[in-house]
Each structure stands twice: as C-alpha cells, then as structure tokens.
Design a protein that fits this description.
- InterPro entries: TPR-like_helical_dom_sf, TPR_2, TPR_rpt.
- Keywords: Membrane, Repeat, TPR repeat, Transmembrane, Transmembrane helix.
- This is Tetratricopeptide repeat protein.
- By secondary structure, this protein is mainly alpha-helical.
- It has a domain at about 45-205: Tetratricopeptide repeat domain (Serine Threonine Protein Phosphatase 5, Tetratricopeptide repeat, Alpha Horseshoe).
- The chain contains 40 helices and no strands.
- Helix 3 packs antiparallel against helix 4 (about 125-135) and helix 28 packs antiparallel against helix 29.
- The longest helix is centred in the N-terminal third of the chain and has 21 residues, at about 100-120.
- The chain is globular, with a radius of gyration of 34 Å.
- The two termini are about 50 Å apart.
C-alpha cells in the first residue's frame, strides 16, 4: 500500500472518517501514450510566465521583460508608483467610531505598511499586510488591486482564489483586474473560471466597446472558448474582432494594438473564418475567408478549399466540389489529409461514394510526390479490403518519400492479416519515428483485445531477445506483457530495454516497478526499486526509488526495512512528503508514540500542501483518540479547521468528538451537517449526524440517518448499529434495541481485529437489558 496522504484510512481505519478513499500512487503508472511520446525526450518544465497567451497587455517593457520572472516584472512596475501622501484619504475620526470605522482605519494602516514593505522588496510581508487589510475592509477595491497581482506574481494560487470573488464584489467593473486573474486561471488550467472572468471584463460598463482593449479581450475570449469547444460562443466573441480587422478606422486602436491586430492579418482572418464555420456563422465564415484571400497571397486554391468547407455546411455540395477542385488543381499539400476527408464528405453527400477511390487514384497520378494523398488512398484500400494494393502503395511511398506517417496504415494491414512478425517490426519502426503515437496507442489497445495475436507477438518478441528485438520492440512488448499480466515476460523485456537504452533507465524502472506494485508482486518490486536505486546514473532519483521500496516493504509487513529505506531517502532529500511517509509507516507498524512524534514534527513544517496537511491532522487526531487523549485529538483538529473551515471530513471528525463527549452539541450539529451537505451518501457522516441528534435528545430523527448509513454500507458497521440500538432504547423500543446491539456485537467479534472496548460496551448493555427483563 502506498503511503499517499489519501491512503491511510485503508490500512488502519480511523474511527470517524471511514472515507472510501482510493490509493493514489505517488508515482503512478504512466499511460501508454505518455510513455511512448515522452520516452525519447525528457522535458524540463519551465517556470510559469505572467505573459498572457495573446499578448493583450500593454507593452511597458520593450526589451528585457521576456527574460524576467512574472514577479520581477510586476515588482519593477509597481515600484515606479510612489506613495503620494497628499492623495491618501483617511476616514474621518468620530467621537464614537463604529466597529466598521475602526476596521477601515486599521485596513488603511495595513495597506500603507504593505506599500512600504513592497517598495523594500519584502514581498511576503507585504502580502501578509494586504491580507489583513482585505479581511478588515472587504469593500476596498484598492487593496485587491495590489493584493491579487502580487499573489499571482508569487504564484499563491490559493490566495488568488480566496480573494477574487471578494474583489468582484468590491468593484465588479474593474475589467483590468478581472482579465489579469482570468489569464492566471488559464495558466492554472481553470478554463471555465478564466472564461467567466474575461467575459465579465468585456461586459464591464467602464470599457469602451470601440477600444483596442475591448477588441483584444474579445479575441482572447474567443481563443479560450475555442479551446473548450464552445464553438458557437467562440464565433460570437470573434465577430467584434473580425469587424475591427476589416474596418480598423471605426475603432480607437493605438499603434501597438493595431500592429498586433494586423500582424499576419491573412492567417488571423482564416482562423477566424474557421471559428465562424465551426460556430455555424456561415455567411461570416465566407466573408472572412474571402478577406483572408484578399489580404494574403490571393491564391484561389486556398480560398477554394475554405469555401468548399462553407458550402458543404450550406448544403451546396456541387459548388463545394468545384471549389475544392481548384485546390487539387494547384497540387497543394498545405491542408494535408483534411482536403481528402472533405472530398470524401462531399462525394458521400452527393451519393457518389463509389467515386472516391478513382478520384484519389487520379489525383495521386497527377501529384506523385504527395505522400499524404497516397496514404489516404491506402486507407481507403484497407477499408475496402484491398490489402495487397494498400501494402504495395505504402511501401513504395515509404521508399520514395521517407515519410513515416504511413507506417500505422501498414501495421493495420498486418494486424488485419494477423501477421505477428511484420506487425511487431512495423510498430517498432513507427514508435521510433514518433509519428502518429495516438494511432499506435489505439492499435495496441485493439491488439490487447485479441489474446491469440497478443500471445503470438510476445512469442516473436521473446524469440528475438538474443538477436534483434531492439529497444522500441522491447518496450512495446513490455507494455503488451503488462496488459496480459505476464510478469515473467515483463521482466525480460524491461531488462532488455534497459541494456539497450540506459539513458531511459528512470522511466523504465518506474514503469516496471509500478506494474509490479499494481499486481501486488511486492517481493519482486523491492528488487526492482533496489536495483534502480543502485544505479549511479540515477543518483538524483534515488530518494524516489527508496520511497517506493519502503512502500513495497510495508505491504510485506517488513516495517523495519521500510523505515530504514525511508530514513535513507530523508537523509538524501528531506522533503515533507518523505517525513510524512516515515510517520505513516510507523503508524502502519502500530508504533503509535513514534508516529505521533513524527506527525507532530511534520505538521509544524512550512509549505506543506493542503492535502498532505489534511492527512497529517486526521491521522494524528485519530492516534490521540485511540490512546484516550481526547483533548489533544480535539486540539489537532481545532488547529487545522482554522485553516480549512469548510473541509467536510475535519468538520465531521471534530463534530463527532464533541458529540461523543456531549459538549458543544449545537456547534457539533452544524459542523456535521456541513459535512453531510457536501456528501449526502457518506455513511460515516450520516452516522455522526445520527449520533449528535441522539445526544441532543432527538433519537427519532437520528434513526432515519443511522438506518440510511447502514443501508449504504450494506454489510453494516458495528459502531453504527450500536448507535442505532441506543436510539431505539431511548424511545422505549427495548426489544428492537437488544436485536440491534446483538447484531453489532456479532459483527464486531467477527472483525479481523475486534475493538475490545466496543465489545465490552455492547456486552454490558445486553447484560443489563437481560437483567432488567428477567
């Protein structure tokens, strides 16, 4: 079992959470496409930049901004803005100021302090002062104008999200701030929020709809909507942009914006035409394509292709075919296979599908150097079961043009013929070319569904281990063996691949090790992780391998070896995650005192990610409660809930602790209801709600929630049955209470590790009830 922050409840259950949490592996098995497309090239991610995707902000730095970080650019710009004391407005002093007046004064003081700290480059302290100012005076738009950009520059995404809605409430018309945050959300891949904010900016009453800013914001909005496939709204967003490009004299465009808007105008107009086409604004699409031709080279061939795309949607198929022919006559290849797919679509609409192959053959004769055309023709041969013609055409094209795009089609021929040897060779060559990786993935998926072909391919691969399998063939067969769960062959193929390409050792070891972990073959996994860790060329990754070796040792219940491995990882690179892992292993090993010490240490560390922080506090609280230290169990959760007051699990767990002691019951009910509202079918949350209602003297209402919890769990939970029995007893249903308690006792005794305390409690209840009735 992985030591993932979300995994702990599956190994040593917490009394209250009992969440149905899946194990998220720290270093999960990568998908086949990712493995193939990234295997030959290891990329290093760059730091996120503040620049927006369409460069719509004013160009204040002409030369060196592109080489600076977002924070450096922002700091330099802000430092140019001096504090003008004469312009500061202090609230009037009142003899008896209200709390609101006092808060505004304090907020202003924090704001001024922030500006001074900011100009001294004390950015973290400035950010802290701005947060205090915003919390004291949520209506101050000036605070947000500094706080949010600074948080963006420092990549403090949680703060951006926390304050953006408050900034909107304070000044909903501040379009510049809305756009800035929208761009940030885009970089965070929060596309829906980015679109909402930038659209809101374009709707601001302060922005002039004839201004260059407005035009560029609409262009940016169109790009985002296109990315999210909201094609109708994207087309609507582009209408203003199109009008400004055709009639720039009607807009107030400064020289910089005009230059950006008109740069490569023909290409931009063609893209806008495509957006209009996709959004079913067909007349506008036609106009945009014609304008693109006018402002571009004026080639009728490209215009012919574009207009054919319009006419096929308009239903004017003959006109579309005539325009497309102009593109074919020019023997252009710029539109790739799209042109031939359009031909196929037009002929189908004209009920002339039988003409497709003859038409393609004629085009291929007139354009013998067009490999994309020939490969498309070969695909039609394959679809019509003309495999010999397809094979001949693809091979001749590969020999004459060297374009590897046709390799997947050739592999498809061998797949259909179930010819294992040439299929393996062709797939390996295709993989090496890094062409059509997605198509190769699809082909592999189909092979996996054919056990006989899979077996034949692996036999061919195994027979070549001593000869010429090659790195690409070994890797493909390794992935195929994984799917077939042939661990013996997985080991052989990965061992061969490692010998062939040592530079890919990290990815190979990782994929191999994760496969074994997934198959619960932990002894062999330990060997693989240990071998990876012993590779001198992988020294920088050694802590990762040691961490995974520790995970495998935990599953084998070799806790001492697991602890030794993670300690070694920490000695090389002492991260919060490895610190947590050591605590988690001690927890799994039932070394509770050592686990508590480690969890207490790690929870005081800085920069712990929220999910890890949550897991630390939940486990630590549970450890204290298990040893009978309810006070510290509560305190741990009370500390955490200050930072995450909406967290359902923490609200549930802390609310239950309060209820179990009969204190803060109204507060406990509110907290637990917050948890239930977030997940109405969570049995643990429903049990907590039933229990707090029982403690509040509402056993009848409690029964409804407890019975629902039992139904959800199907097999039931002894604790919930115990609570249900208490409710029936409180209502005077003593016979029903006895039956339910008996069920609870039976289930608890049958558990793998019965809770002796609960067993004793149930036995005493049943004994007392028996004495009372005798």
């Amino acid at each position: 079992m992985n030591w993932s922050p979300q995994a702990h409840t599956l190994s040593k259950s917490t009394p209250r959470s009992r969440e149905s949490l899946s194990l998220n592996k720290l270093f999960g098995i990568w998908g086949f496409v990712v493995m193939l497309s990234g295997l030959l090239f290891v990329s290093i991610p760059s730091k996120a930049a503040e620049s927006d995707p369409v460069q719509t902000e004013s160009s204040e730095s002409e030369t060196s901004d592109s080489e600076k970080t977002p924070l450096e650019i922002y700091v330099e710009r802000q430092q140019k803005l001096p504090i003008i004391i004469e312009n500061l407005q202090f609230p009037d002093l009142k003899e008896s100021p209200t709390e609101k007046d006092i808060n505004k004064r304090e907020a202003l003081a924090h704001f001024l302090t922030a500006r001074l700290l900011f100009n001294r480059n004390a950015h973290q302290q400035a950010l802290s002062e701005l947060q205090k100012a915003a919390d004291l005076d949520p209506t101050s738009s000036e605070v947000y104008e500094l706080l949010i950009p600074l948080a963006i520059g420092m990549n403090q995404s949680e703060l951006v999200e926390k304050y953006v809605s408050k900034a909107e409430d304070a000044d909903p018309e501040n379009y510049e701030l809305l756009v800035r945050v929208g761009r940030y959300m885009q970089r965070q891949n929060r596309m829906d929020e980015a679109i909402r904010l930038i659209r809101r900016a374009t709707e601001s009453s302060r922005i002039d709809h004839k201004s260059g800013e407005y035009v560029l914001f609409r262009f940016e909005l169109g790009l985002l909507l296109t990315l999210t496939k909201d094609l109708e709204k994207a087309a609507e967003a582009y209408e203003v942009v199109f009008d400004a490009m055709i009639h720039p004299e009607e807009y107030e465009l400064n020289s910089q914006i005009k230059a950006r808007l008109m740069a490569d105008r023909a290409q931009s107009l063609e893209r806008i035409g495509r957006a209009f086409l996709d959004g079913d604004r067909l007349d506008l699409a036609e106009q945009a394509f014609e304008a693109a031709s006018e402002f571009g080279t004026g080639k009728p061939a490209i215009l012919g292709f574009n207009l054919a795309s319009v006419y096929v949607k308009k239903g004017d198929y003959e006109k579309g075919l005539n325009n497309l022919q102009a593109y074919f006559d020019a023997r252009l290849q710029t539109k790739g296979r799209d042109a031939y797919e359009l031909l196929e679509q037009l002929l189908e609409k004209l009920d002339r599908s039988d003409d497709l192959i003859p038409s393609l053959e004629k085009l291929a004769d007139n354009d013998p150097r067009n490999s994309k055309l020939k490969y498309f023709l070969a695909e039609q041969y394959i679809e019509n079961d003309k495999l010999d013609e397809a094979e001949k055409l693809i091979k001749s094209t590969l020999e004459s043009r060297g374009d590897p795009e046709g390799l997947i089609s050739l592999a498809e021929i061998y797949f259909q013929r179930r010819q294992a040897e040439p299929l393996l060779d062709t797939m390996a060559t295709a993989f090496k070319s890094q062409q059509n990786i997605n198509a190769l993935q699809d082909l592999m998926n189909r092979i996996e569904e054919d056990p006989e072909l899979t077996k034949a391919l692996m036999e061919v691969g195994e027979s070549r281990l001593e000869e010429n399998l090659g790195f690409e063939g070994a890797l493909l067969m390794g992935k195929l063996a994984e799917k077939a769960k042939r661990s013996d062959l997985v080991s052989k193929f990965y061992t061969y691949a490692l010998a062939e390409r040592g530079d890919q050792a990290f990815r190979l070891y990782q994929s191999w090790g994760e496969y074994l972990m997934q198959q619960e073959e932990y002894e062999q996994a330990v060997e693989v992780w240990a071998a990876a860790g012993s590779e001198s060329r992988l020294n920088s990754y050694r802590p990762i391998f040691l961490s995974r070796e520790a995970d495998a040792q935990v599953e084998l219940e070799n806790f001492e070896k697991a602890i030794a491995a993670v300690k070694k990882a920490r000695s090389i690179r002492d991260t919060n995650e490895f610190h947590f892992q050591e605590a988690w292993i001690q927890y799994r090993a039932s070394n509770d005192e050592e686990a508590i010490k480690l969890f207490e240490d790690v929870r005081t560390k800085k920069d712990i990610n929220p999910r890890l922080q949550r897991s630390i506090h939940l486990i630590l609280s549970n450890l204290y409660v298990q040893k009978g230290d309810i006070t510290n169990g509560e305190k741990v959760l009370e500390d955490f809930i200050k930072f995450d007051p909406e967290n359902p699990t923490v609200n549930n767990d802390l609310g239950y602790l309060y209820a179990d002691q009969g204190k803060n019951l109204e507060q406990a009910e509110k907290m637990i209801r917050k948890a239930v509202d977030s997940d109405p079918d969570n049995a643990a949350f429903l049990d907590s709600l039933g229990w707090v209602l029982y403690k509040l003297g509402k056993p009848e209402e409690a029964i409804t929630h407890l019975e629902k919890a039992i139904k959800i769990l199907e097999e039931g939970d002894p604790t919930i049955y115990n609570h249900l029995g208490d409710c029936h007893y409180a209502l005077g249903n003593k016979e029903e209470a006895r039956k339910v308690w008996e069920t609870a006792l039976e289930k608890e005794k049958a558990a793998e590790a019965p809770n002796e305390k609960l067993v004793k409690e149930l036995e005493e209840k049943l004994s007392s009830e028996k004495e009372a009735t005798s």
